[in-house]
Amino acid sequence: MFGDRRRAFLAKVQPEARQDLDKVFHSLPRKSGPAFRRELMHAAQQIAKERLLPWLEHEEHDAERAYRAVAQRFVEFANEFLNRLATTGVPELAQLPSALDPEKGFRARSEFHFNLLERIAAPASPFRLIADFGMGALGAYGPVQRDATQFLDQLLEWNSARVRSDVDNRVLESRHWLEAEIRILLREVTAVAVRALEHARTLQAEGAAAVDNALARLDALESEIRSLATSSSTA
Fold it and tell me: For the chain, where are the alpha helices, taking DSSP H only?
């Protein structure tokens, strides 16, 4: 789903961002080739940022809402399980752990940082520098515009992919937190259940011994009564 939304976002935003860059290209004063390249490349960085960051905020909000809805089902299932155990009437199960807190969303913070790809914006190649000086001297700024447009597309592609990776990582880490809480809960419930079972077995064993003792006493009493009856009939 996220991949489809990213493709739709790029299909919409790339033409708009290119138009913004084209306006900057025509408004920039013509100067030396290297200085003109730097300004146009930095304009591409700013345009990509302004287009991408609102989309990042929107996607994170939607992803967190979807995660919260799914995770809440597991929280509710675990708490319902606790409630069922607590109403069984077994005394030990009154010591069950407390219910899980309602799921509030991502447990992990965003690690996304917009990558400006500065090595492309300001290349250190001396050949690029010489070529830019030559283009500036001739007033041939078209190749710079073409490079800046490609750079703009690359910024949008690269950083939108990093948005997806950041959201995926937050979902994964948040899921691990929730899984760990549920595992701890299940271990605590298991420990309580084991104690309840051991107690029940002890009571059962004690009850069986008490029954055996009572039966033995009844047997002895029956023998006594028979003996007395025999003595009485003889007399």
Answer: 2-27, 33-86, 118-121, 126-138, 142-234
